[in-house]
Specification:
Structural class: alpha+beta
Largest sheet: 8 strands, antiparallel
Strand content: 25-35%
Distance between the termini: 113 Å
Radius of gyration: 34 Å
């Protein structure tokens, strides 16, 4: 990667940042709410699989319509791909990259510093230094007919297959590209120029061992439709149903944590962008940096509180029974704690009153004895 040394300074618009902040702020709520809903649905899917999956080693009519776990070698007779490469594999992922300028903007005070870096990327970076369209694009190819043991995989299950092997030495083909080990390319890979192309491939070989949890329908395996969404688990290798379920559970938990953090960060950035017009006012008297520094902590606190509130509301919407149960338990704990505190106070007051009642006769008796002695 090379750094393009020409830099540009542009005055940034506080209004544009304010609008961006509103978009990020609202988008964070949407992301957090969706994330919790997806998490709740996947928990329902996990329970459904645990309660319904059965182990099978062959195709039996009595299992028709049931959720089954099956392990077998997957194969196909098809050649898949495009004009650049065709191969007899189960799945083929084509990764196309173009050498281009990546624009990076860094804001400081009232100005924005723009730098350009040379990178290989499958994403098209739209800026005035790059070409308007990607000359080649990445793609995924799947065999239409894949057999696993005595079953046929439906396309809905094939879509879950993942590639796991990279071509270390691509075949020499008359496809208009040079060939260097794992790449088809234009130009010189050791000294690439803007606009150069390189293409690599990953694939899932035939006869790969595949583990599947899916619905048996005749001699085929397809997704199981539920109220929580489509259910199908596929793994490259030999895995028990419990191992596949545990992986699904772990991935679901990691995903919800990732998106929670992302939502929190987006909300915090949104708040800081919303405060940009105020920051600009402080910049006039040279205190913009101080305002930006001081506003970070309140922005984080507000983001944490609002994110937590959004997550709680989402759980009330998606998992009301669990939410109500938790709230009920908390309410019972609070009521019980309050009653115990009240009871202890009443007990202390009662003891104090009893002590007073007991002391009164004793004092009266002593008074009468003293009167007699006189």
């Amino acid at each position: 990667m090379g750094l393009f040394n020409n830099e540009e300074n542009n005055t940034k618009s506080p209004i544009a940042n304010f609008i961006l902040g509103i978009v990020l702020f609202i988008g964070a709520f949407v992301l957090l709410f969706w994330n919790e809903g997806n998490y709740a649905k996947n928990i329902t899917k996990e329970k459904f699989i645990r309660n319904n999956v059965i182990e099978i080693t062959e195709n039996r009519p009595e299992n028709n319509g049931k959720l089954v776990h099956y392990i077998g070698n997957a194969t196909t007779d098809e050649f898949i791909g495009d004009k650049d490469l065709k191969a007899r594999v189960l799945v083929l992922d084509k990764k196309a990259q173009v050498y281009q300028w990546k624009e990076v903007r860094k804001s400081r005070g009232r100005h924005t510093r723009t730098s350009y870096y040379k990178v290989w990327s499958s994403k098209h970076y739209k800026n005035r230094r790059n070409i308007e369209e990607m000359p080649v694009k990445s793609a995924r190819f799947e065999a239409e007919f894949i057999k696993i043991g005595t079953f046929i995989l439906k396309p809905s299950v094939i879509s879950y297959l993942q590639t796991n092997t990279t071509y270390s030495q691509l075949p020499q083909l008359n496809n208009g590209y040079k060939t260097t080990e794992k790449y088809y390319h234009t130009g010189d890979l050791s000294d690439p120029q803007i606009g150069d192309i390189r293409i690599s491939y990953k694939y899932l070989p035939i006869n790969s061992k595949i583990s599947v949890i899916a619905r048996q329908l005749g001699n085929s395996l397809e997704i199981q439709r539920t109220n929580a969404g489509d259910v199908a688990l596929v793994g490259n290798g030999e895995y028990s149903s419990n191992e596949m379920i545990e992986k699904f559970k772990k991935d679901n938990y990691n995903n919800v944590l990732t998106y929670r953090v992302l939502g929190l960060v987006l909300m915090c950035i949104g708040i800081l962008c919303i405060l940009e017009p105020i920051s600009m006012l402080f910049s006039v008297i040279g205190l913009g940096w101080l305002f930006n520094f001081v506003s970070i902590i309140p922005a984080i606190i507000i983001s944490v509180v609002l994110s937590g509130f959004t997550i709680a509301i989402a759980w009330l919407a998606y998992r009301p029974l669990i939410s109500i149960s938790i709230l009920s338990i908390l309410t019972i704990i609070l009521i019980t704690t309050h009653k115990n505190s009240t009871k202890r106070v009443d007990t202390k007051n009662a003891d104090a009153n009893n002590e007073t009642i007991i002391q009164e006769p004793k004092d009266q008796l002593e008074k009468e004895l003293n009167d007699l002695m006189k």
